[in-house]
Specification:
The structure is a single chain. This protein folds into two domains: about 190 residues, Rossmann fold (3-Layer(aba) Sandwich); about 160 residues, 3-Layer(aba) Sandwich (Rossmann fold). The chain is about 45% helix and about 15% strand. It has 17 helices and 13 strands. The strands form two sheets. The protein has a seven-stranded parallel β-sheet, sandwiched between helices. A six-stranded parallel β-sheet has the order 10-9-8-11-12-13, sandwiched between helices. Helix 1 packs across helix 7 and helix 1 crosses helix 17.
């Protein structure tokens, strides 16, 4: 079996790493295609080293050579076509809701290469998160096999008319890698000066950073809650928004807030999360990891694309207004009974064997053949 495994962002590198290793361990010809959507050293080379993942066979460097999302998608689409012509894979694995997933899936499908979409079926039925909801829908439309993290995602795909026999509920590969990283037990408390009670803070979504009112709410809430320590993971977009809205100097002067640029080490990031009493973020992946690590998560958005964590009880959606953020953070931190319910909530994403399940299914489908299926008889499914 000859597979291309494609990704291009930090979260997708993390989530696809166990799939790459599983594919290689089974002796399959595995080509890593890295689009370079995230291209700075701490989001690329340092991360690969940390994950003990070999460097890509193809690094298309699309991110550093693109000036907009349109240009990024165009570059990925065109350059992926050249790679597929050269490699001639049996299938392409894409991941999630990134511009990389959307463009690679389109390029593969238009090149008549079967697309296996990992983390398929995520829906908010909203424009948000932007552009992730567009990306995941297009990725699914261009896919042949769908690996849904939870049953809700599978039902989303079924309701949109995708074939039941090609949809598989397998859990999430982030649990595979999070458990691997947690076992490393990196010593981070002294290195980063971590003190309790500690809250991890990260706000970076486009629809939030580009709007002063939305962005200022959780930041001002953090500034006010000086009874807690905050560990701030600073993305470039977050720093730019803080400067634009006149909040950066306030953050830097606050004695209860420690600011660090995005940490390249996933092992250290997981270790830092384990030291925290709660996480306040607009991240999509972190509530998944938090559910596996038994850390209360507060989603700083008005809508959540991981509603299964809310249903399970490990995550609450707190919005972006300063008052509601403060109310919910203090509830999680100050109400032992409520906190214990969040801590003890089960993870909906499996036991850390998702990559094995994906490869078992993929091998079976490959052996059966007919991955690119066109209708061979009269159908009335659209009537």
């Amino acid at each position: 079996m000859k597979a291309v495994i494609a990704f291009g962002t930090k979260p997708c590198t993390i989530k696809m790493a166990p799939l790459v290793k599983e594919c290689e361990s089974r002796g399959h010809k595995t080509t890593i295609l890295y689009t370079g959507q995230h291209w700075s050293p701490n989001l690329y080379s340092e991360l690969f080293d940390d994950l003990e993942l070999r460097y890509p066979d193809y690094n298309m460097r699309c991110g550093e050579e693109s000036y907009s999302l349109n240009q990024l998608a165009t570059n990925i689409l065109q350059r992926t076509e050249h790679v597929l012509k050269e490699v001639k894979p049996d299938m392409v694995f894409t991941h999630g809701d990134t511009t990389t997933s959307m463009a690679v899936s389109l390029a593969a499908q238009l090149s008549l290469v079967p697309v296996f979409h990992v983390e398929a079926g995520l829906r908010t039925f909203s424009k948000e998160p932007f552009p992730e909801q567009l990306n995941t829908r297009v990725s699914d439309a261009a896919s042949d096999v769908f690996f849904a993290p939870v049953e809700r995602n599978a039902q989303n795909l079924l309701s949109e008319g995708f074939p039941r026999e090609r949809i598989f509920t397998v859990g999430n590969t982030v649990i595979d890698i999070a458990k691997w990283a947690a076992e490393r037990n990196a010593d981070v408390a002294k290195k980063y000066g971590l003190e309790k009670p500690l809250i991890y803070f990260s706000i970076h979504r486009r629809e939030t950073t580009m709007d002063r009112e939305r962005f200022s709410g959780p930041v001002e809430a953090m500034l006010e809650m000086d009874e807690f320590k905050f560990f701030v993971s600073m993305r470039p977009g977050t720093r730019a928004a803080l400067e634009k809205y006149g909040l950066l100097k306030k953050i830097e002067k606050a004695g209860h807030i420690s600011v660090y640029d995005s940490i390249p080490s996933y092992i250290e990031t997981i270790a830092i999360m384990k030291q925290c009493d709660a996480i306040l973020s607009d991240s999509g992946s972190m509530p998944e990891e938090a559910s596996a690590l038994n850390i209360p998560f507060l989603t700083a958005r008005y809508i959540c694309d991981r509603p299964e964590t809310v249903a399970a009880g490990s995550n609450i959606v707190v919005g972006l207004r300063k008052e509601t953020v403060i109310e919910n953070v203090r509830r999680v931190m100050g109400n032992p009974e409520f906190r214990e319910k969040m801590v003890s909530a089960p993870s909906p994403y499996g036991q850390g064997d998702t990559s094995k399940k994906i490869l078992d299914i993929s091998e079976k489908l490959f052996a059966e053949g007919n991955l690119l299926r066109f209708e061979n008889g009269v159908t009335t499914r659209n009537v």
